[in-house]
Specification:
By secondary structure, this protein is an alpha/beta fold. It has four domains: about 130 residues, 3-Layer(aba) Sandwich (Rossmann fold), CATH 3.40.50.2300; about 170 residues, P-loop containing nucleotide triphosphate hydrolases (Rossmann fold, 3-Layer(aba) Sandwich); about 60 residues, Helicase, Ruva Protein, domain 3 (Orthogonal Bundle), CATH 1.10.8; about 35 residues. About 45% of the residues lie in helices and about 15% in strands. The strands form four sheets. A five-stranded parallel sheet has the order 2-1-3-4-5, sandwiched between helices. Strands 7-8-11-6-12 form a five-stranded parallel sheet. The radius of gyration is 32 Å and the shape is elongated. The two termini are about 45 Å apart. The model has no long low-confidence stretch (mean pLDDT about 85).
Length: about 450
């Protein structure tokens, strides 16, 4: 990794030399620019980790206006580069405004060597970590985009590594003519994964039949799956094909497979092994060629031990198992999914995002979708809050020091807001709010 480079923009050569000596002793490279034009030109060439800039460059100038203009130019062109403002003329109001605008710190001349070193080293480390995270995020985004370009992901929305690995595996097994068992809690997205497998399978042009075994009455389940001849049971006035026949040449997705009766399981096992079955009330054997996908939220191994699920069927359908984690196990997907469910023109405010991330989502993606869509229907506001969503925002305790305490801390900090905030145990943003509320920003 290259040596971190600090750019000092100051018209005082002695300042540049002093900072070069101080920082080089800590393994930092230092480059100097005598004024704004030279500093901006050097920044344009790249590879600068941190800027330390003066606030005044013309003789006898103490307003800091030149430094303000330089700061805004750097921030506009290089928003990720941290900036430390350095001046012999400290104006609290200017400091507050510039730190609000993104300055990392505001230090008076003469500076405290140890404090300056600590600030520079922390900012360089944070900057490196931030760029590494950005590079990793860009790489992850590119990998996800490549997968979406190569396969039909049916518009699936995700950010988590866990879901990415699932979609990678799903697209790999899609073309294989083997049963796939999708497991995981209700509402986690098993049907979405089934859609992706079918869309990338060799039989994607064929029918895609979905059956929720949990929604079928036990007495009708076999007839729904295998069909029935006229008179096979009370009310069967005419012969009808079952879902297996409807799925011939395509895919059958059988959800809640654990609810299938033992008799139905026996017939299903036979279809899986031979492709043959009989309609209820018929002795004529029919054959189909179907790609099978199964899903369950039940513990099938426990069902085997209790005798409610056949062990041989379990091993027949469990050639490939894909387990979907609960939404709470992949928090990185919460906000992208929530934004997908928003009605056009709607957005989420900070309280809504915090509440969404803090909620445990026992109903998983289905519960999240319902919460967002319900809020969009019931609220006319374009921006949804935690209250609109019916979720409690996480409590955030925050000190509110009195004016005298703030003034004393600012005096001890030489007017440096970031330093005073640390002493008071507040974030800079919290201290800004208190300064404005108490009307002492310019004192």
């Amino acid at each position: 990794m290259p040596t971190p480079t600090v750019l000092v923009i100051d018209d005082n050569a002695a300042v540049c030399t002093a900072l070069e000596v101080l920082l080089s002793l800590r393994g930092l490279a230092v480059e100097c620019a005598p004024g704004p034009a030279a500093g901006l030109a050097r920044l344009a060439r790249g590879d600068i980790d941190l800027v330390v800039q003066d606030m005044n460059f013309s003789r006898d100038t103490t307003s800091g206006e030149e430094g303000v203009q330089l700061f805004r130019a750097i921030r506009a062109a290089h928003p990720a580069v941290p900036i430390i403002l350095l001046t012999a003329w400290t104006h609290l109001e200017t400091a507050v405004e510039l730190v609000k605008a993104g300055a990392a710190d505001y230090l008076p001349k003469p500076w405290d060597d140890q404090r300056l070193l600590t600030t520079v080293q922390n900012l360089v480390a944070l900057g490196r970590a931030s760029r590494e995270r950005a590079a990793l995020a860009a790489e992850r985004s590119a990998v996800r985009a490549a997968l979406a370009a190569r396969y039909d992901l049916r518009g699936a929305v995700y950010e988590s590594d866990a879901m990415h690995e699932l979609f990678v595996t799903a697209t790999r097994v899609a073309a294989a003519d083997v049963p796939v068992l999708l497991t995981g809690p209700n509402g986690a997205g098993k049907e979405v994964l089934a859609d992706v497998i079918q869309a990338n399978s060799a039989v994607r042009a064929g029918p895609f039949i979905k059956v929720n075994a949990g929604a079928l009455p036990m007495e009708l389940m076999e007839s729904e799956l295998f069909g029935a001849e006229a008179g096979a049971y009370t009310g069967a006035g005419r012969a009808r094909a079952g879902r297996f026949e409807a799925a011939d040449g395509g895919t059958l997705f059988l959800d809640e497979i654990g609810n299938l009766s033992l008799a139905g399981q026996a017939k299903l096992l036979r279809v899986l092994e031979t492709g043959a079955f009989e309609r209820l009330g018929s002795s004529a054997t029919r054959r189909v060629r179907v790609r099978f996908l199964f899903a369950t939220n039940a513990d099938l191994r426990s069902a085997i031990r209790s005798g409610s699920f056949r062990e041989d069927l379990y091993y027949r359908i469990n050639v490939i198992e894909l387990r979907l984690p609960a939404l709470a196990e992949r928090p990185g997907d919460i906000l992208p999914l929530a934004r997908r469910f928003l009605a056009p023109g709607r957005t989420l405010d900070a309280s809504a995002e915090q509440a969404l991330l803090a909620h445990p989502w026992p109903g998983n993606v289905r519960e999240l979708r319902n919460a967002v869509q319900r809020a969009c229907l019931l609220s006319a506001a374009p921006v949804l809050s935690a209250a609109t969503l019916g979720l409690e925002a996480p409590e955030r305790a925050e000190r509110e020091p009195e004016a005298a305490e703030i003034r004393a801390a600012l005096a001890r900090a030489g007017g440096v807001v970031a330093r005073a905030a640390r002493e008071l145990g507040l974030s800079r943003q919290s201290l800004y709010r208190r300064l404005e509320k108490l009307g002492i920003a310019g004192s």
